[in-house]
Amino acid sequence: MENELIIHNVSKTSATGSYILNNINLALPRGSRLSVLGPSGSGKTTLLRMIAGLDTPDSGDIRFNGVSILDLPPHKRNFGMMFQDYALFPHLDVFANIAFGLKMKGMSKRDQAPIVEQMLSLTNLKGFENRKVDELSGGERQRVALARTLAPGPRLLMLDEPLSALDRVLRKHLLDQLTQILSRLHITTIFVTHDHEEAFAAGAQIILMNQGKIVQQGSPDQLIHHPVNDWIKSFMA
Ligand SMILES: Nc1ncnc2c1ncn2[C@@H]1O[C@H](COP(=O)(O)OP(=O)(O)OP(=O)(O)O)[C@@H](O)[C@H]1O
Ligand SMILES: [Mg+2]
């Protein structure tokens, strides 16, 4: 399959000179789903921020459909990113939150409505249009965040720990819901987590990160049964 997103030799160092990302190389086929797994501070969010254009690499290139996107500002990349804390607008209702990206694109309210309807239905939120987001449960908020991210029709979807704000008991159930929604979409997706089970359920391919490096890429089976070093073996245990 043709590679849609290519990350080539991307590095970033902090002000003190330590690596935040250390020579990252990655190729994602169109429509694929990748899980990025790694401990806290391993560089997962930074990697997503670079792809989204919210942060710039010190060296290396990021290409989408064969074209370098480093000079494109975030809004012109047409990628969707759902943040760790969802970053919903508390003063807006569910409808306005979901419609936000469409409004930013200059779309009329009349044209926004059917897309928001479609998103409400995709995420099982019909009837929630006029609810305030700070009166929703964690799981409902997560679905509003997903609907808002998907509404503008992004070419690439990035989910940064989409379940981390939720109760343990809810997580499994919502992970199932989320993967069901994703499998209906055929959109290239990067799913970030520090939880093995979530990573395995969300992506057929996993990259394991530690200290700004990709330490192994493979299927869940390869990571569990053929870890390439002792750190991976103990992280996966
Ligand atoms: N702008 C920055 N300047 C300096 N250091 C940074 C910056 N952004 C992130 N870092 C550092 O880079 C490392 C990677 O951070 P990042 O947020 O990407 O990790 P993460 O894998 O997403 O962690 P978590 O699982 O806790 O969300 C951390 O050590 C962090 O402190
Ligand atoms: Mg993070």
At a glance:
One of its GO terms (molecular function) is ABC-type ferric iron transporter activity. By secondary structure, this protein is α/β, with parallel strands linked by helices. It contains nine helices and ten strands.
Structural class: alpha/beta
Which kinds of small molecule does this entry bind, naming each only once?
A: adenosine-5'-triphosphate, magnesium ion
Give the terminus-to-terminus CA distance: 32 Å
Number of strands: 10
Q: What is the mean predicted local confidence, pLDDT?
A: 93
Q: What would you call the quaternary organization?
A: single chain
Q: Largest sheet at a glance?
A: 6 strands, mixed
Q: Would you identify the regions where 5 or more consecutive residues have pLDDT less than 50?
A: none
Walk across the major sheet and give the strand order. 6-7-8-3-9-10
What's the shape? globular
Beta-strand residue percentage: 25-35%
What proportion of the residues is helical, as a percent range? Answer: 25-40%
Give the count of helical stretches.
9
Order of helices and strands: EEEHEEHEHHHEHEHEEHH
Radius of gyration: 18 Å
Entry keywords:
237 residues; alpha/beta; binds adenosine-5'-triphosphate; 26% strand; binds magnesium ion; globular; four-stranded antiparallel beta sheet; six-stranded mixed beta sheet; 38% helix; iron
What does this structure look like?
The protein has 237 residues and is α/β, with parallel strands linked by helices. The protein is built from nine helices and ten strands. The chain has helices at residues 44-52, 74-77, 94-104, 109-122, 138-150, 168-185, 196-202, 220-225, 230-236; strands at 3-13, 19-29, 33-37, 59-64, 67-68, 79-82, 156-160, 188-193, 205-210, 213-218. Strands 6-7-8-3-9-10 form a six-stranded mixed beta sheet, with helices on both faces. Helix 6 (168-185) links the parallel strand 7 (156-160) and strand 8 (188-193). Adenosine-5'-triphosphate binds next to helix 1. Magnesium ion binds next to helix 1.
